[in-house]
Amino acid sequence: MATPKSSSHSIGGKPERRSLVQWIQKYFWEGQSLEEEQKDALQKINNQKDISTWKYMLVYQRRVIGLVLPAMVFHIFWWSYFIKHNMWYLFEDKYFMSITMIFGSLIAGMTSEGGGSVAFPVMTLAFKIPPTVARDFSLLIQSCGMTAAAFTLYWMKVNLEWNAVIFCTTGGLFGIIIGLEVIDDLLTPSQKKMSFVCIWFSFAFALFLLNRYHKRCTFTSIPNFSLMKVFILVVTGVLGGIFTSISGSGIDICCFSVLTLLFRISEKIATPTSVVLMGINTVIGSFWRGVMMNAIDDITWQYMAVCIPIVTIGAPLGSIIGTHFHRLVLAALVYTSDTVALVSAFVIVKLNAMMVGVYMGIIAFGFIFFFVLSKLGERLMKRVISNNTLEETEKCFADVAKKDFDESHYISTV
């Protein structure tokens, strides 16, 4: 079995203290985790002296094209419609949503939370907008911003866990429909607001405890993929689809929690995977809510209209930035956003003592569930590592033992 090598970053047996520049490089500009094909193309470009501008752009500047192309498509249609119908008056009393989604779209692209994790609590808690409108807006706006971000990630050839994308989406299709048609009407507005923030705070806390071990083993793909893991991903998709049908966001963080806690996938892989998942599933949810149910209010479309030009740039830009962050930074963004949402909910929503107890119980139950999930993940990891022949074992140990910055794992492009 491979064993971790000692770090070469030491002087006299003691770790060498990093400079500020090295610290920033490690955590905020670590480099992108790219597909092998793209890594090979970048290395070939670096070894060539005379290359055409077009080839240089297609290989070495894929981030620029990945950002501009989807934004350009959305902006052409948006500007054409707004100029034709003189819709600028919408900004007079709905500008606050445009400002909200500047931050929401960046967070959506950078993390596994999705734009709905910002839009839903802000709209329901801060602006007193009905949860149904907030949910529908979250679905609609992410069907634009997250699909643009998904294209950017695919175009840049960022590593994704495609098994999770395929099978979580399969389950999510059924979960979203069941949630919209059946479960959504069974919950009160306060229950929708509080359940959303309580459950995902529990996950954030469990992930925080797991990441206390900074050198823990992580994988780039689900090890020993089997029918049982297909079943787990489909069930995860169903549950995530139900959450998405209630709050406009959920399948992304559901998938992220299972990938990171159970299958021990690195946050650098799980985060872009969750972004792609959210893009696909919000298109499904928007179609079902808008076409099959014909139940989206006019004001929801108006909120969407004032945010499209922002999110179709902000979400892809957030995805580009996020792919360069260290996995611990990505995890810290999850802790922060979920904690802020929880505190805000308890401050803003008026709850009696009994309801406070109920929601604290939900947090406790959620933490126990995610803690058990992480323990099962630990057993799975040990089982994988015990098999000396598995390629995933070598990748795992390489990740633990690698230097603070190793270009063989991540590629830093300019």
What does the model show?
It is a single chain. It is built from 17 helices and two strands. The chain is mostly helical. It has a two-stranded antiparallel sheet with strand order 1-2. Strand 1 (10-11) and strand 2 form a beta hairpin. Helix 6 packs antiparallel against helix 7 and helix 8 runs parallel beside helix 12. The chain starts with 9 loop residues before the first strand and ends in a 13-residue tail after the last helix. Residues 1-12 and 397-414 have low confidence and may be disordered.
Structural class: mainly alpha
Report, as a whole number of angstroms, the end-to-end distance. Answer: 37 Å
Number of H- or I-type helical stretches: 17
Q: What is the percent of helical residues? A: over 70%
**Largest beta-sheet characterization:** 2 strands, antiparallel
Strand content: under 5%
Order of helices and strands: EEHHHHHHHHHHHHHHHHH
Give the total of beta strands.
2
Task: State the assembly state of the protein chains.
Answer: single chain
What's the alpha carbon Rg, rounded to whole Å? Answer: 22 Å
Adjacency order of strands in the biggest sheet: 1-2
Give the integer mean of the pLDDT values. Answer: 81
**Unreliably modeled segments:** 1-12, 397-414
Q: What overall geometry do the principal axes of the alpha carbons give?
A: globular
In summary, what is this structure?
This protein is mainly alpha-helical.
How do the helices and strands line up, and which of them pair or pack?
Blueprint: E1 10-11, E2 14-15, H1 20-28, H2 36-47, H3 53-60, H4 62-85, H5 90-110, H6 116-126, H7 131-155, H8 162-183, H9 189-210, H10 227-247, H11 251-262, H12 267-292, H13 298-305, H14 308-322, H15 327-348, H16 353-386, H17 391-401
Antiparallel strand pairs: 1-2
Helix pairs in contact: 3-4, 4-7, 4-14, 5-6, 5-14, 6-7, 6-15, 7-10, 7-12, 7-13, 7-14, 8-10, 8-12, 9-11, 9-15, 9-16, 10-11, 11-12, 11-16
